[in-house]
Amino acid sequence: MSAEATNPGAPIRRWGRPRIDLRRLGRVALLGPVSRDRLPAAIGHVAEAHRAHHPDADLTVLHRAYVLAESSHRGQMRKSGEPYITHPLAVTLILAELGAETTTLTASLLHDTVEDTEVTLDQVGEEFGDEVRYLVDGVTKLEKVDYGAAAEPETFRKMLVATGDDVRVMSIKLADRLHNMRTLGVMRPEKQARIAKVTRDVLIPLAERLGVQALKTELEDLVFAILHPEEYAHTRAVISADTTAADPLTAIAGNVSAVLREAGIPAEVLVRPRHFVSVHRVSVKRGELRGTDFGRLLVLVGEDADCYAVLGELHTCFTPVISEFKDFIAAPKFNLYQSLHTAVVGPEGEVAEVLIRTHRMHKVAEAGVIALGNPYAADSVTQTAEPADGERADPTRPGWLSRLLQWQQSATDPDTFWTTLRADLAQDREITVFRTDGGTLGLPAGASCVDAAYAQYGDAAHSCIGARVNGRLATLGTALGDGDTVQLLLAEDAASGPSPGWLDHARTPTARIAITGWLDAHPQHPETAPGSRPTDPRPVPQPVPGAAGPAGRTASALVDRPDATVRLAGCCTPVPPDDVTGFTVRGGAVTVHRLACPAAARMEAVGRVPVAVSWGDASECRVTLVAESFGRPRLLADLTEAIAGADAAIISATVEPPSEQRVRHTYTLQLPDAAGLPSLMRAMRDVPGVYDVSRAQHPAAVL
Q: Relative to the CA of 431, which of 511, 519, 586, 683 has its CA 20 to 30 Å away?
């Protein structure tokens, strides 16, 4: 089955395999039992397609699976009026044409038996083994009577978890959805639209990630026809009109074949028509379509080296369009895709896009993970050891799937899972960034240092204070590019936590769920501005008058309210011996501000009654300082050395991007004695290039 096959009612532009008549197969399926020594006629097409890819396949198990499926579904009819057995037959035929191995086809024939008949998983396992049982279980839907409105998202969660251990589960689901989409016309329009939207948002991105382009492209066209009928009709009319015109691609294909023959490179040159959505995208991008926009040339060769030989001949004998060249052989896509892409100018000035790949690459480009056969067999070439960093190297468990399985464990709420899954799958490009220890991180395009931190360290990334990207200091919000090298900097204080501002930079569900969870578990001070860190992420009991101050973490502020919780405001970070005042906020807590804090003035202006505050005996304190400086080499190193010389510990630090040669550094510091703050600020001002050091002043809301 071609990845670029046209869809219902569309003309076949060049060549294509005729669609099997499933109604005829359904009638054959109802003719009764067959002798045990031959396959039922109804699955003869499946056997033929299977043997084309696997000549030595044992078809006995398919015979037994068909007999069980046909007998268990007997009497059931689809909404289209066909015998139900035509559905598992069609799904199995789709997979057989893509080269799926026998175990997958067996499970495909049985994929609806447990869900829709009296057959149990135990019966499937006893008859066909644990592998088939696992695959059938993986694609079996959860009952609405048990899960209610959560049945659909929880079914997809179940399938994705099963796919994490065996990608063949999702292969069967994709083929199942393709046949259902082909026969969706018998349903109500609103149900068609709902199923098409789920297919667009979830199944098509999964097909893309698993590299199953043959299924993805037809699903795209079927969804296009349902959700955008006018654009679909226009595109179909444009394609139909083009079939009556002279085809410039055929002429260019002949020229390419002649060039390669003269060069002695054995190659097959084909014209591949674009599918509907592809033609529509080209028309949106370019406006008026050219004759060569309705297809591309495909050159198939035997060896990898021949791909580059073909490229050299094409760029020598034709005028290349250099901007269109991409090498996905040296750098394969994350979904196993490999090919050389280029474009050349034909004799009449037409620009033709050309794909160059080996026959093996073409099979994988069409069928993705399905082309791997049984990737879990003991002798499989794809079977690899578990690497030290825990990321499976074999293509059956790609990085995006590992990340998806990781974050879904934290999304316990079905609505959160469903929304996050769609958002995650909508990110259709992936980048690879390198770690300084030699490892790599796979991230979606647009990911930031925040995403890299959580991808590498998990919850330990809560204490991340900055990063180096390609050797240069960068803020956590810095967007990463493909091939960047990133080093994440963690604070020594493991109690540090993320700020709400991190959510503005987080693109991966792993990062967003972890940050949101931490913020929910550690409510910020009401006055803490978005983007700033909490003064202390852990609730610390504060003393009442006459009590000893708490050990260690912050200076002790005392108020004349025995049961009140006392917090130091994050907007002005008061420390001894600052003149301070307090205000009661929600929940009865008292927040302590410096007298000069604008937030304190606003609270008094709206009628808040100040609370008397004094400092206790504890001398240790935490403070946030802002250093303004001119940019120069080693500035950060000199500043941190000055801070260390004053016996202060750096809890967190951020460095904003330079603006007009000026750099702004923000440090949250732990001082052993508040009396040392003035000398610390003087030491920082003495660093060459630093022209001002001040206490942080963040805007605060009045609550």
A: 519
Q: Is the pLDDT of residue 218 over 60?
A: yes
Q: Among all residues, which ones are annotated catalytic?
A: 115-116
pTM (predicted TM-score): 0.63
Q: How far apart are CA 193 and CA 206, in angstroms?
A: 19
Q: What was the pLDDT predicted at 123?
A: 92
User: In whole angstroms, what is the distance from residue 625 CA to residue 676 CA?
Assistant: 13
Using only the alpha carbons of the chain, give its radius of gyration.
Answer: 32
Return the closest-CA partner of residue 4 out of 476, 366, 516.
366
| CA trace torsion 334, 335, 337, 338 (10° rounding) | 30
- Label the pairing between strands 464-469 and 268-273: unpaired
Residues 6+ apart with CB under 8 A from 49: 93, 96, 97
Question: Residues 6 or more apart from 426 whose CB is under 8 A from it?
Answer: 201, 205
CA-based end-to-end distance of the chain:
64
User: Under 8 Å CB-to-CB from 428, ≥6 apart: which residues?
Assistant: 205, 208
In this structure, are strands 430-435 and 485-490 parallel, antiparallel, or unpaired? parallel
The tens digit of pLDDT for each residue in 527-583 reads: 333 333 333 333 333 333 333 333 323 456 777 776 677 777 767 778 777 788 888
Model confidence at 376, pLDDT cuts 50, 70, 90, reads low
| DSSP structure string for 140-202 | PPPPHHHHGGGHHHHHHHHHHHHHHH-THHHHHHHHHHHHHHHTGGGS-HHHHHHHHHHIIII
Residues 6+ apart with CB under 8 A from 315: 342, 344
More confident residue, 105 or 323: 105
The Cα 474–Cα 609 span in angstroms is 43
CA angle 314, 318, 319 (to 5 degrees): 115
**Which contiguous run of DSSP H or E holds residue 304?**
helix 304-317
Strands 566-568 and 590-594: parallel
pLDDT at 104 exceeding the cut of 50: yes
Lowest mean pLDDT among 169-178, 235-244, 433-442, 565-574: 565-574
Per DSSP, helices labelled H in 355-476 are: 359-367, 399-408, 414-425, 449-457
> Can the peptide bond before residue 189 be classed as cis, meaning omega within 30 degrees of 0?
no
Q: What per-residue confidence (pLDDT) applies to 316?
A: 92
Task: For residues 667 and 680, give the distance between their C-alpha atoms in angstroms, rounded to a whole number.
Answer: 12
Taking Cα atoms as reference points, which of 34, 22, 26 lies closest to residue 63?
34
pLDDT, tens only, 452-462: 999 888 888 88
d(CA 453, CA 451): 5
- What amino acid is encoded at 620 in this protein? E
Kindly report, residue by residue over 625-674, the tens digit of the pLDDT.
888 887 777 788 888 888 888 888 888 788 887 766 678 888 888 888 77
The three-state DSSP-derived secondary structure of 157-168 is HHHHHHHHHCCH
Q: CB within 8 A of 498, min separation 6: which ones?
A: 462, 464, 515, 518, 519, 533
Alpha-carbon separation of residue 701 from 562, 581, 695 (angstroms):
26, 17, 19
- How many CA atoms does the CB half-sphere of 643 hold within 13 Å? 25
Closest by CA to 553, choosing from 618, 640, 491, is: 618
Q: What are phi and psi for residue 566, nearest 5 degrees?
A: -110, 130
Which residue, 512, 494, 493, is CA-closest to 502?
512
What pLDDT, on a 0 to 100 scale, did the predictor assign at position 45? Answer: 86
Longest dimension (CA), the chain: 98
Burial label, 583 (beta-carbon count in 10 A; 0-12, 13-18, 19+):
buried
